[in-house]
Amino acid sequence: IEKEWLSFGHKFSDRCGHIQGDSKEMAPVFTQFLDATWQLTQQLPQHWEFNERYLLAIHDHVHSCQFGTFISNSDKERRDLRVVERTYSLWAYINSHRAEFLNPLYVKENTQDILDVNVSPQTIKFWRGLYNRFEFGVHPRHSLSEVLVAAQNHISSLENHIQYLEDQITRLSSDTSDSQSSCGVSP
């Protein structure tokens, strides 16, 4: 994304409508790229280190302007506006929350140079996690197995996050007790 989209000058501000401008310039090209990436993760889940939440975070923050990563239309504009100095990077945020974005099905040894992808129209799925994520309940067109897989993925993600938080608590508790003992304070 950094190389192919940001450095090569995808016009995020115009395409995403960050500023008032020509409405003819608005286009969901980057959303389509993220959707295509998600389609690949559905066909070959063991080949991707990141999960759906990672793609959703990128999509949301492209439009939120909370981070400076996707602000402006080109690398030159970002340099001129000193975006790096004046804003936070989405990549730093993602790196600091890395455990939330890891795919539990990823197997590094399975990675290959050429992916065997089925491009027939029948393999394209509707990305409910992006387009209908705020709709609750089971849609009549979803099979029970799809609902169960989605529920299992959500449970797994929550369990991973719980483990991450427990590790953080343990580490912080250890750091606190270490600093208290080095200061001569009894815990």
TrEMBL record:
Matching Pfam families: Myotub-related (PF06602)
PROSITE patterns: PPASE_MYOTUBULARIN
GO aspect biological process, one term: phosphatidylinositol dephosphorylation
Keywords in alphabetical order: Coiled coil
GO cellular component, one term: cytoplasm
Residue runs in coiled coils: 148-175
Record flagged with keyword Transmembrane helix: no
GO MF, one annotated term: phosphatidylinositol-3,5-bisphosphate phosphatase activity
InterPro entries referenced in this protein's UniProt entry, alphabetically: Myotubularin (IPR030564), Myotubularin-like_Pase_dom (IPR010569), Prot-tyrosine_phosphatase-like (IPR029021)
SUPFAM superfamilies: (Phosphotyrosine protein) phosphatases II
Domain Myotubularin phosphatase: 1-131
Presence of the UniProt keyword Flavoprotein in the record: no
Protein family membership: Belongs to the protein-tyrosine phosphatase family. Non-receptor class myotubularin subfamily.
Name used for this protein in its record: Myotubularin phosphatase domain-containing protein
Protein species of origin: Medioppia subpectinata
